[in-house]
């Protein structure tokens, strides 16, 4: 896939109907030869739309007008390039817990959570958020995570979590203003509710800061997993992380995680993991596959706003 087609697909499949600003801008970028040339000078993993758009916003650049975006990007390319090379898309969307909860609530309790690609760790608190599945509400603390859930009944109880830890090559500190600014820059322009949710989730995490270890998902996973209390069910999980990992390391991770006791939950795009035949997605927009121990269970939207269960057997 070319750089231009990547941005065009992002516009059509990810931003369409969700962020008119990014839909319009990404399409314009895909037809901008000068920006295409600039992006071609950085490694492929650093060309992705969310990363470029987040960096430009972090640096104070405009995203509402494609012409202004072009001028800012070309003029400030050295600073943009430096940030592209050192940053990754570490979107720490607490809303994704809404698609984890139906699985977590069914596993043997209590749980020990280990998140791979944890960013600032906001995904490690599914027991401390409030959930709204249609008319069904669960909880009364932290941000309210709304999810359109179909195919199964909503969870009736939150999981009991007795240990939580994260692993990330470049952990973010929820108490660091610069790190929080990067998380905010990664939130799409019109998504004011997500900024509010980020602040409320950050307040939850600040009360009991997560243990996030700087390390590699293959080299350091086993050492961290061994720290989980043996009386708890270990759950290793990741959401929209493995697409950033080279295929060989991705394969090594999946082989390793299958050897661990407990369970493995993955929430990734359908082309990231080989999960066998999948049913059609609910619509043409981008969906992730929610899988338990390598068995696909449901489709989910990228920020946890919807989940469509298709597995015939409940976990």
Arrangement of strands in the largest sheet = 3-2-4-11-10-9-8-7-1-5-6
* Terminal CA distance: 36 Å
Question: For the record, what CATH class of the largest domain applies?
Answer: Alpha Beta
| Largest sheet composition | 11 strands, mixed
Task: Kindly state the percentage of residues in helix.
Answer: 25-40%
Question: What is the radius of gyration computed over CA atoms, rounded to a whole number of angstroms?
Answer: 19 Å
Query: Helical element count?
Result: 11
The CATH architecture of the largest domain comes to 3-Layer(aba) Sandwich
Strand tally is 11
Structural class, by secondary structure, is alpha/beta
Round the mean pLDDT to the nearest integer and report it.
95
Low-confidence stretches: none
Description:
There is one protein chain. With 315 residues, the chain is α/β, with parallel strands linked by helices. It folds into two domains: 3-86, no CATH class; 94-309, Rossmann fold (3-Layer(aba) Sandwich). 35% of the residues lie in helices and 20% in strands. The chain contains eleven helices and eleven strands. The chain has helices at 3-15, 20-30, 33-39, 49-58, 66-75, 77-86, 97-104, 177-185, 192-207, 221-225, 247-257; strands at residues 111-116, 130-133, 136-138, 144-150, 161-168, 211-214, 233-239, 263-268, 287-292, 295-301, 306-309. The chain has an eleven-stranded mixed beta sheet with strand order 3-2-4-11-10-9-8-7-1-5-6. Helix 1 (3-15) packs antiparallel against helix 2 and helix 4 packs across helix 8 (177-185). The longest helix has 16 residues, at 192-207. It is globular, with a radius of gyration of 19 Å. The mean pLDDT is 95.
